[in-house]
Amino acid sequence: MSTARMENPVILGLSNQNGQMRGSVKPAGGPGGGGGVSQTTQPAQVKPSSTVNNGNSQPAPTANTIIKPGDDWKKNLKLPPKDLRMRTSDVTATKGNEFEDYCLKRELLMGIFEMGWEKPSPIQEESIPIALSGRDILARAKNGTGKSGAYLIPLLERIDLKKDSIQALVIVPTRELALQVSQICIQVSKHMGGVKVMATTGGTNLRDDIMRLDETVHVVIATPGRILDLIKKGVAKVNQVQMIVLDEADKLLSQDFVQMMEEILSYLAKQRQILLYSATFPLSVQKFMNSHLQKPYEINLMEELTLKGVTQYYAYVTERQKVHCLNTLFSRLQINQSIIFCNSSQRVELLAKKISQLGYSCFYIHAKMRQEHRNRVFHDFRNGLCRNLVCTDLFTRGIDIQAVNVVINFDFPKLGETYLHRIGRSGRFGHLGLAINLITYDDRFNLKGIEEQLGTEIKPIPSSIDKSLYVAEYHSESGEEVKL
């Protein structure tokens, strides 16, 4: 199990301007958002270059192991510790396929298994064989059910190392998601003998990207503005791209990005494969699909919208009671890591300051911060250096931090889509988690509307919350499915 590493929750030598706030050290073993992990959990030692996907930490890539013909290649794999937490049917309701059923390269299979991915999730079962056939895909699946693996595995299988051109593009809406996906891609492909993966995002040095593209790059993972800039400058040559993936497609095809996406596609060859993945698909996606996709294979694993493993509660409060309520939650809940959402950058910083004054260390992140500070906060929170993160909706898209078991909406969102993506930061890959919403008088209609829109129930918060709903060590260590 991935847990927050909390030997010293006070981050020394860092100003509170970079998103990392001081808090006085709370005694180890106590509940809530303070200094120590509970005594029943073990700290996860995660190296800076690692990536976390399915509850397991990965070492940095090492030199390829030479496998001789006739060797049992699986014996040479460096598998991570088995994840023994219970999982819901969101990821266990499969057809029983194995990754080896898809005739993938052995080197790719080695990377898959060393990520701790034992069997395909439902979205991976549906996507991988269709993507390998070269057909366009329109896929709807819940947050945290393995969408990244669903497109990266066929993408890597189809890379031709004899060609030194860009062969695949993955477009994502945020810089943090680009870095996360690129790390997963690097880890999965580490035995493949030279797949070159590049992440490029806004807020970083353009000269570095230009120099990098002067060398061989096979896969580019990018935010829309930066890759379009590189294409227009003639630096990123995309005429041989055979596959383009839009991850979080609903956001990429919203008014913020759709013109850039149309322009990016205009530079690609006519015969290219387009894969769209998201949890929600508004009308803008339908319009794009009709214009650009050729007889797409449609996958819809969204019979219900919310994750089965996330229990949702609301607490009815006044605006002035919110901080006191949050303090009470910290003291009563067994939080491994929490993400706390506010509706503006200013409120994020104010709340982070309040939390630190209460004696709890926390980080914060929002879009107005300098990119190097955002990267540092994202990296350190992911590696367990702090228990609480306060953020805006910047952090709702695809970010996968397995140790997060509690999400708190300090400010309740207005849109059901926003709510769905926020609570999807907990209960990743079929595990269990809590979503707690602080509701004021002005939020009451939004609460009812979002319940109806998502077909879900947000219950009044009880005086005591059953730990088996969100704390992994209160379950039998069998990895069995939770019947929810």
Task: Describe the protein.
This protein has 484 residues and is an alpha/beta fold. It folds into 2 domains: 16-40 and 305-482, Rossmann fold (3-Layer(aba) Sandwich), CATH 3.40.50.300; 73-300, Rossmann fold (3-Layer(aba) Sandwich). It contains 15 helices and 17 strands. Strands 1-12-13-11-14-15-10-16 form an 8-stranded mixed beta sheet, with helices on both faces. Strands 5-6-4-7-8-3-9 form a 7-stranded parallel beta sheet. Helix 3 packs parallel to helix 4 (147-157) and helix 4 (147-157) crosses helix 5. The radius of gyration is 22 Å and the shape is globular. The two termini are 21 Å apart. InterPro entries: DEAD/DEAH_box_helicase_dom, Helicase_ATP-bd, Helicase_C-like, P-loop_NTPase, RNA-helicase_DEAD-box_CS, RNA_helicase_DEAD_Q_motif. This is RNA helicase.
Helix and strand layout, with pairings?
Elements: E1 20-21, E2 87-88, H1 89-92, H2 106-114, H3 122-132, E3 137-140, H4 147-157, E4 168-171, H5 175-188, E5 197-200, H6 206-213, E6 219-222, H7 224-232, E7 243-247, H8 249-252, H9 258-266, E8 273-278, H10 283-292, E9 297-300, E10 310-316, H11 322-332, E11 337-341, H12 345-357, E12 362-365, H13 371-382, E13 388-391, E14 404-409, H14 416-423, E15 433-439, H15 444-454, E16 459-460, E17 481-482
Parallel strand pairs: 2-17, 3-8, 3-9, 4-6, 4-7, 5-6, 7-8, 10-15, 10-16, 11-13, 11-14, 12-13, 14-15
Antiparallel strand pairs: 1-12
